[in-house]
Amino acid sequence: MNQELKQKYPAWCSDNDFGKFDTVLGDDADSLISCSLLKHIKGYTIKWFYDFSNMFGLDLTSKKEPIGVDMALVHHKTWDNHVTMLHANDYFNPQSANINNIKKNHRGHYGNKYAGSTLLQIWSYYDIPLPQSERGKQILLAVDIAFKGHYNSRFNPIHNSYLKELGFEELIDVLNRHSIKEMYQIVDEYNLYGKIKIDDNGILTTDINLAKLQGFFDFQIALPNEPFQLVRRYKRKGEDIDGRKSFDMNKMFSFALTFQNHVSYTEKMN
Predict the structure, then answer these.
(1) What span, in angstroms and rounded, lies between the C-alpha atoms of 203 and 184?
(2) pLDDT, tens digit, for every residue of 14-58?
(3) Of the candidates 175, 97, 98, which has an alpha carbon nearest to the alpha carbon of residue 142?
(4) pLDDT, position 27
(5) Alpha-helical runs (H) found in 113-238
(6) Mean pLDDT score of the chain
(7) Percentage of the chain lying above the pLDDT 70 cut
(8) Pairing of strands 66-69, 196-198
């Protein structure tokens, strides 16, 4: 990662106390692979699961501070890749490790956003060597469809400029060697669109092809196999925002623009 950019990330990202934090897992491959990488390099363990309507906990006695992974938390430490600002002077979470917040990317110039994955940011920040195999590099780019902008003539310069800032010029070469059709085939082969869910016994399940993913990275990708407990419920909402200038962030737990004119958020329940 470009050192000037790296210095703008929150100070907690550079904490060298191995195992200091727990992680909050989201419901997709970007979150799970990111959590798995953080466990490998930082000793952080998945102790929470957030499905954007409910929070579940695995060890409610843990004294470690949780870090959200691939979620736009409003007031807590989190790794994230979403646009969260409606305008240049809007609130953003100062504890969010998110290149879009660092660069003050907002709704007004949504087309300039970083459209890569949370995983690529973490990989870059901690200077992790890229996978050795071509397929491994393709999988890395396929998580959260982080390749898509490369194949659009309008967004290609923006997409590739972010990869360069992250120190991933080699991944641009990978994309140049493969078509967008080949990259979507990677998504399909490993079911990277798959979701993580919790069953009636509190056990996490997924249809992401974890068995097939093993071996491409130097760490294990796995869900906890212990039962989680429901801790808190949230009101999950989504709405178009044409003309709306602000939201009450004191009520919010997570908040993100999922399209230029649409926000998805969760409100705390009393």
Answers:
(1) 30
(2) 999 999 999 999 999 999 999 999 999 999 999 999 999 999 999
(3) 175
(4) 98
(5) 118-125, 134-142, 156-165, 169-177, 180-189, 210-213
(6) 95
(7) 99
(8) unpaired
Within a 10 A sphere around the Cβ of 131, how many other Cβ atoms? Answer: 16
pLDDT of residue 242: 77
Q: Please give the pLDDT value at position 270.
A: 66
- Phi-psi region at 173: left, alpha or beta (left = phi > 0; alpha = psi -120 to 50): alpha
Q: What distance in Å separates the CA atoms of residue 115 and residue 146, rounded to the nearest whole number?
A: 6
pLDDT of residue 245 exceeding 80:
no
The letter for the amino acid at 15 is: D
Count of H-run helices and E-run strands, the chain: 9, 11
Residue 178: φ, ψ to 5°: -130, 150
Instruction: Output the pLDDT for position 219.
Output: 96
pLDDT confidence of residue 162: 98
The domain segmentation of the chain, as residue ranges, is 3-268
The one-character DSSP state at 200 is T
Burial class (CB in 10 A: 0-12, 13-18, 19+), 132: exposed
Say how far apart CA 203 and CA 161 lie, in whole Å.
Answer: 40
The span from the CA of 211 to the CA of 60, in Å, is 29
Alpha-carbon distance values, 131 to 113, 147, 149, 252 (Å): 26, 16, 21, 37
Cα–Cα distance, 92 to 104 (Å, whole number): 8
Contact 2, 87 (CB under 8 A): no
Name residue 56's beta-bridge partners: 49, 230
Eight-state DSSP code of residue 108: G
pLDDT value of residue 268: 85
* Cβ count near 144 (within 10 Å): 23
Which is nearest to 69 in space by CA: 107, 20, 119, 113?
A: 119
